[in-house]
Amino acid sequence: MQKRFCYFILVLIVMLSFSCNRHNRMSAREREIERTRIEREEEDQKQYEEAVKRHMEMQSKETRRRMRQNARTSESVRTGEEESWFFLKRWFKPKRKKADPAGRSTR
After folding, report:
1. I want to staple 81 with a disulfide (CB 3.0 to 4.6 A). Which of 2, 74, 76, 97 is the partner?
2. How far is CA 26 from each of CA 22, 31, 41, rounded to the nearest angstrom?
């Protein structure tokens, strides 16, 4: 009885060790795939940022300023930042300049 139990435990340990080795090999392959995917995403992000920078450099100073302001506004809307609930802050915040209806420059 004791011998059978020892053999059973020995066979169980051997079976578990083989299954663990296969899992580790598969895991290493998955890690390699994940690493290459992450590198590709980083490269894509870098290329995107360079393209945005090139696009910004092509714009005039005023257009760049408007683009930055629109980006800030869209970010606050996207994140759900609400306008201040305190009425005095809303009343006395800086107002945007209105465009000239005749299309003339204000300079």
Report:
1. 76
2. 6, 9, 23
Residue 90: partners with Cβ closer than 8 Å, 6 or more residues away: 83, 84
Least confident interval from 12-16, 32-36, 93-97, 100-104: 100-104
Give the span between the Cα atoms of 21 and 28, in whole angstroms: 11
pTM: 0.45
Which tens digits make up the pLDDT trace of 39-81?
Answer: 999 999 999 999 999 999 999 999 999 999 999 888 887 876 6
Tokens, residue 79: 């994140």
With a CB cutoff of 8 Å and minimum separation 6, the contacts of 97 are 106
How far is CA 79 from its chain centroid?
Answer: 14
